[in-house]
Amino acid sequence: MANITLSGVTKSYGSVEVIPPMDLEIEEGEFVVLVGPSGCGKSTTLRMIAGLETQSGGKMTIGKRDVTTLRPGLRNCAMVFQSYALYPHMSVRDNIGYGMKVRGVPKAEAAKAIDDAARILNLTEYLDRKPGALSGGQRQRVAIGRAIVRDPDVFLFDEPLSNLDAKLRVEMRVEIKQLHRRLKTTMVYVTHDQVEAMTMADRVVVLRAGVVEQAADPITLYERPANLFVAGFIGAPSMNMLEGRLEQVGDELFFRGPAGADFAIPADRVDVLRPHAGEACVMGIRPEHTHDRGGSGASVEIEVLDIEPLGPHTLLIGQAGDAKFTGQVAAGTRAEPGERRQIHFDLDKLHFFRASDGRAIR
Prior knowledge:
By secondary structure, this protein is an alpha+beta fold. It folds into two domains: about 5-235, 3-Layer(aba) Sandwich (Rossmann fold), CATH 3.40.50; about 240-355, CATH 2.40.50.140.
């Protein structure tokens, strides 16, 4: 078990810099998830930690060791890939133990390590089966077992659940998190799925174009996003964004936005927002913090484009002026495309961002 420190780490391909200088500290025993859209640099960062990609600059340490120029085999990191990469002609037992066999680990020691890993991963009854006789989730557990027996300082996961169906992904998320609690080993996990990130991580690192936009625990990311990118990326469906202005009228402060979104700022937010009176801003509200019951004093009129009945609630997907807007309404609500509906906000759940640079106003 070890901490990981990236100090000014960069990655370039020729003249193209894909990872600008990155500083990141991953604590010993922490479960950190790197998340972001395709091409944001998350897999490249993970592969640099593993030593599979050579960093172009900066320094990297794992524990007390400087591993900046160390080859992968000497870093004591175990990596689990998106593809299971199992040997189809070998049994589960032999797949898990193959690395130990190559390293010349004594047979008795290897057998114990395999049995321990199989017990942890509920694979004991499958040890004599071939990978072809296993489900996708079982194969991924075999791949994880192969990593466990290495007794690594760090586990690295590169989108390991991408090949599984929705039900299996949920089950494997739980299993990997339980594995982390049992082993208490540092884990770095890459995914493009923000639901995976939010449900698994001790801390989520949101990347965009190789830059760390925010690194925080999941609840902080959700409730206090640092900027418009994080606000829009974290949460499903995405946060609604309405461009407008803050305007001082007497002692009151108003948000003036599109499609009737014109309301007084709650008293507990006025002191923070008042210095930005007269400025363009973006108001954000998550769909789950909207309703159609009225009474909040803050609302927007949307033209319904589509309706999504989801069981516990229904989503109205519409247009508010030039902005797309999704409102969450009661289950069973009916609406037709082209219909106009008033969607109300929970005033204590509003987010405000500077239009000039997208930074949160707090």
